Amino acid sequence: MSEKKPIAHLTQGAPMGVVPPDGENEPGIDTRRRYLASDAFGVLCFLAMTTCLLALVGLLAMVIINGLPWVSWKLLSSFPSRTPENAGILSALVGSVWLISLTVLISVPIGIGSALYLEEYSKPSRWRRLVQLNIANLAGVPSIVYGILGLGLFVRAMSLQRSVLAGALTLTLVVLPIVILSAQEALRAVPKSIRLGSYALGATRWQTTWHQVLPAALPGMMTGVILAMARALGEAAPLLAVGAVAYIAYVPRTLSDEFTALPLQIYNWASRPQAEFHGLASAAIIVLLAVLILLNAGAVFVRSRYGKRVKW
Amino acid sequence: MTNSSLPNADTAALADDDWLTSASNRHGYERAIHAFLLACAAVSVFTTIGIVVVLLAESLQFFREVSIFEFMFGTRWTPLFSEKHFGILPLLCGSFLVTAGAILIAGPIGLGTAIYLSEYANPVVRETVKPILEVLAGIPSVVYGVMAVTTVSPVIRWLFQSDSIFNALSASVVVGFMVLPMIVSLSEDVLRAVPRDLRLAAYALGATKLQVTLGVVTPAALSGIMASFLLAISRAVGETMAVTLAAGATAQLTLNPLESVQTMTAYIVQVSAGDTPAGSLEYRTIFAVGLTLFVSTMLLNILAQWILDRMREEYE
Question: Is B20 close to A55, i.e. CB distance below 8 A?
Fold first, then answer.
């Protein structure tokens, strides 16, 4: 909008060398129409944006309104049940905590290790480009495909059955590209002079990486890890493919126990016809979103707190 | 001889690396760490190999019993009924219907939003709306599924006076809104990457904002916009939870968005959530369908990536 004024000023009256169409003798009219069209288009695009925001926020608000009456201590502290009044998400909540902790434990070392290899150790080569391209492609693979891989590889071939471990390994594969790509970005943000300074003092490559590069890149890596946790928390499709079922009336105690997770419980309740279960599903969504918001707040906190500590 | 054939930058990097490697080899564990990191990086390569091997191995066994022609061109998909037919067209049709609907909704709204944010909005609006959209992009897809079931589907049934609870349209609507943030964010990036000189040159010729946007900026960013659409399509094809909840489980060849359809992803969920014994023909169908899904989304992603890479070079 700010650029409009000087241009409008320039084109006021008859534009130089422009013949008004069809003998139209008032040069102002065509110009005015053109600006009217331009502004109308701006309004149209603004409407697109408001539609987009209102629809998303509105849909979310509907879910929250549906679910609020069902949010209670009982919801958090009881197991799923046939009767909506007694049903709760305890096993799902604990299952999700199990899954996420395991997924983070497995995916973070592998993910950061891969990023370190690609950014700090490997030379520019065809092999590195291939690995990089492969990771970018893996990030776009639908999560249900990872579920099929988990079913074929972990559940059947390694005969882990429908265990927490099989679920966590499958989720690890889903979030690994996210961890690697964000860790690489964090490593790229560390200035080359830090590394060269360390090498100049006679440090080896690993000493440089461990004592200089990693601490500097850690806040950026943490945000990536939290993003990955959020993704793992919300994924349902790969777990369904691995064969996790929603009706589990106990809390998993070992790695080989069967499990359920929050998104699975939500899916299970939403796929039933009764309206009460839809209310429960919405209530479980409120819990899920609350945990997601906490995770995101954690990411912001980590970035602002530890991002400042390292300065060059 | 060999050195002179390399570009200068590469020669420098190599020399640099040789010196460092010889220094680090003084310690044995340096080499061990190198090997460990290499193994980490290899995990992602093995993941891809794993996907391909698992999908191909089971699919090949499937195609030993079912002819590939029936699979590709058969018009009935009833592997779970007593009379079995294995034509994937109804599933493809379901996926296509939901995806097409989603893009018809997300395309215009997303592009309009991106144009508004990049060309019309003041920085304050832009800096508030973009993070909001990013947050919305992080909402799990099962949440969108619940939205479809509890809110969108009743509205559609009331609007069109139809009685099917499950319909392709409500799936399209929520998947459309789900991929919207992606289209907005990517398109806005490429629109903003169009050099300012081009806009100023057009303004200098007396063009209005509309003419500059539609005549100069959008065509210049067109390939990037195409890429964002392709990525959104790939995402919509692979989307699982929302379509499983909203579109139902009736595999049929129809283009009527008010009817219940089954997508490839929804079929995979239906079978794997049930109790099909490993090694049976029904069990193998999900690998054949998964292979089809994997190949189609992979092609879309590679195409989009290729377009984006080519564009990046053009502007540098």
Answer: no
CA distance A147 to B316: 40
> CB–CB of A3 and B203 under 8 A?
yes
A55 pLDDT exceeds 80? yes
Where among B65, B87, B104 does a domain terminate?
Answer: B65
Domain count, chain B: 2
Q: Is B210 on the interface with A (CB under 8 A)?
A: yes
Q: Find the CB nearest A116 among B37, B57, B120.
A: B37
pLDDT tens-place string over residues A34-54: 888 888 888 888 888 888 888
Alpha-carbon span B267 to A125, nearest angstrom: 41
Q: Does B295 touch chain A (CB under 8 A)?
A: no
B312 touches chain A (CB under 8 A): no
User: Domains in chain A, start-ordered, CATH in brackets?
Assistant: 69-308 (1.10.3720.10)
Nearest Cα residue in chain B from A179: B44
DSSP string for B174-230: HHHHHHHHHHHHHHHHHHHHS-HHHHHHHHHTT--HHHIIIIIIHHHHHHHHHHHHH
Q: Do A140 and B298 touch (CB under 8 A)?
A: yes
Which one-letter amino acid corresponds to residue A307? G
CB contact under 8 A, B152 and A116: no
pLDDT per position as a tens digit, B215-259: 889 988 888 899 999 999 999 999 888 888 888 777 777 777 777
Task: Mark whether B79 and B95 lie in a shared domain.
Answer: yes
Looking at residue B86, what DSSP letter applies? B
Tell me which residue in B30, B48, B206 faces A11 most closely, judged by beta carbons: B206
Distance CA A220, CA A300 (A): 11
Residue A174's Cβ-side half-sphere holds a number of Cα atoms within 13 Å equal to: 32
Interface of B with A in 79-108 (CB under 8 A): 108
DSSP A19-57: PPGGG---HHHHHHHHHHHHHHHHHHHHHHHHHHHHHHH
Task: For B9, name the nearest residue in chain A, comparing CA atoms only.
Answer: A124
Please state the φ and ψ torsions of residue B306, each to the nearest 5 degrees: -65, -45
> Residue B124: which domain range?
71-313
